[in-house]
Amino acid sequence: MQTTQHVLFERSEMKDRHLVRKKIREHIADKAKLPILIFPEGTCINNTSVMMFKKGSFEVGGTIHPVAIKYDPRFGDAFWNSTKYSMITYVFNVMTSWAIVCNVWYLPPMVKEEEEDAVHFANRVKAVIAARGGMSVLPWDGGLKRRKVKESFKEEQQKKYCQIV
Question: Cβ(72)–Cβ(101) under 8 Å?
Fold first, then answer.
C-alpha cells in the first residue's frame, strides 16, 4: 500500500476525515497522479442493491468516473452471507467454484452541479450505477448489517407506510 499511495484513515476520527479530504484534493489537483479508486458504500451487499454512499468522496470536487460492478452467481457466488456461512465455508466455496464472473460497466464521467450538495451528487451517481447494474437503490448504509436499526429510522418508514395506506 505504501508504494501505491493509498490514503488510509480511521472513519470514526473527525481529524482523519479532514486530513483525508485535504490529501484527496491535493491528489486530484496533481494531473500527473493516477485517479483515485473509492468504494463509497463502505461495505458490500448481496448483489441486488446499491446502498447509501458516504458523502466524503463527493465533497472534494473533481470528476467522478462511476463503475457499476455486479457478480454473476452462475458458476460461484462471490457474496459472503456471514449469517449463513462461516468464513471457512465461504472461502472453501469460493476456492472450489468453477469461476467467479463479474460484470463491470464503465459509465460516463459525472461532475457535481453548481447548486448540488455532496449528498445529492452521491445519490445521483448511485442511481446511475444502480440503473446500469439492474439493482435497486437503498437509502441506508451498510451499518444496518451489523447494528440494530435506530428507532427514528423505523418511525420514518412507518410514517411513509401510513401515508401510502
Answer: yes
CB 146 within 8 A of CB 45: no
Query: If residue 143 lies in a helix (H) or strand (E), which one and from where to where?
Result: none
Question: Rounded to an integer, what distance in angstroms lies between the CA atom of residue 64 and that of residue 77?
Answer: 29
Specify the residue for cell string 468464513.
Answer: 87
The DSSP output letter for 76 is: -
66 near 125, Cβ under 8 Å? yes
Cα separation, 70 vs 49, whole angstroms: 10
pLDDT truncated to tens, each residue of the chain (165 aa)?
Answer: 667 777 777 767 777 778 888 888 888 888 888 888 888 876 667 788 888 888 888 888 888 999 999 988 888 888 887 888 899 998 998 899 888 899 999 999 999 999 999 999 999 999 999 999 999 888 877 666 666 777 887 888 888 888 888
Separation of alpha carbons 145 and 45, rounded Å: 9
Domains of the chain, residue spans: 37-164
Question: Cell digits for 56?
Answer: 466524503
Question: Distance (Å, rounded) from C-alpha 145 to C-alpha 159?
Answer: 23
Write the CB contacts of 133 (distance below 8 Å, at least 6 apart in sequence).
Answer: 50, 68, 69, 70, 103, 105
